[in-house]
Amino acid sequence: MEKFMILGGNRLKGTIRASGSKNATLPILAASILNAGKSVIHEVPRLVDVSVMKDVLTHLGAKVNWDRNTIEVDSTNVQPVEISEDLMRRMRASNLLLGALLSRFGRVKISYPGGCQIGSRPMNLHLKGLQLLGATIQEKFGYITAEADKLVGADIHLDLPSVGATENLMMAAVLSEGVTFIRNVAKEPELVDLQNFLNSIGAKIKGAGTDTIKIEGVSLKDLKPTSYTIIPDRIEAGTYIVSAAITGGDVTVTNVIPEHLDPLLAKLREAGVNISVGDDSVRVVGNGRIKAVDIKTMPYPGFPTDMQPQMMALLSLAEGTSVITETIFENRFKHVGELRRMGADIKVEGQTAIIKGVDKLSGACIEASDLRAGAALVMAALAAEGGTVLERVQHIDRGYERLEVKYNSLGARIIRVHN
């Protein structure tokens, strides 16, 4: 286990570059096995989750070469072998192999995936959609087996706009016969990126980012090699933006798509944060204590649940009382207890957190319960008086590339300690 030693009180200043999107990279890597050839993928963040996906692809028979921020995947010799429970439990996004393997081979067996324990993320929407495409599903002893002599286009209506189900069904439909419509889909930018990648290898998909996605099935021989660049990570960029605000800093975040950050920037402006937006950058200048605001997490283009913990850290120091309502995950307030240890005044009632802003936070011994909670606690520690010891930083490494190095380049004082 590793931990961060963080000395707070420094105003962050300078320029920082967001990495490629973790939540776009993982489904795109899963989709690369559809193509019996090479995919060269650029702007891949060097993260633990990406390393796990690399191991999974290698286990399936792909040749994977990872050089800095570029991954080359040759999926020519991929086979639908059973994926070990150990690999599946190390990362939630491993469930995305279900649609890709079923589409290419007509059979797949995987165990239920793992990942952050932030709430229930059932597979029922994925499985219901695959059944409508013609798959037979069996769930037994913690494994999911899906089989189909052939997948046939269907009209699928999701009960909820699930990101994972939308991605899985898009990939499953690529090599199906006929046309598939998926309705009430998730609209996240990462889905548009997956569509663009799949089209670059020869798929015929349109509609990502709207309510309905249309997939015209193609054959394996229609697919071709590609070179593709991942979009910037909007959650990483958002984390740096809020970090500038909480420390009263002056930070420019580059390699961003500002439109993807609109819900976050709107709330920060409401709180009184000074923000200026360029073509591919956002500058944040702290200008005194922020004002309280209310937030309700929603599917994109609403306020992202992945930015809720970071905003809670910021609002802990706001003037007035803020209310955060979490509608996506029922167990995503685990960071509250740790923020309280630092002096925050937060009360939780069901899926609602009431935050009364305090004048200051103080350093403490705390621990990260999950990826975004960990990021929020780093931010709180940067703004706190004195030193903080943050345990279980392996959660942070799942989604942030060299986090302490990037923060230290802005004037933070963070030391990674190997126990």
TrEMBL record:
CC per GO annotation: cytoplasm
Chain sites annotated for binding UDP-N-acetyl-alpha-D-glucosamine: R92, D306, I328
* Its EC number(s): 2.5.1.7
Please tell me where this protein is predominantly located: cytoplasm
Keywords, A to Z? Cell cycle, Cell division, Cell shape, Cell wall biogenesis/degradation, Cytoplasm, Peptidoglycan synthesis, Pyruvate, Transferase
Question: Looking at the Swiss-Prot or TrEMBL record, what is one Pfam family this protein matches?
Answer: EPSP_synthase
**Residues recorded as bearing 2-(S-cysteinyl)pyruvic acid O-phosphothioketal in the entry:** C116
Instruction: Write down what this protein is called.
Output: UDP-N-acetylglucosamine 1-carboxyvinyltransferase
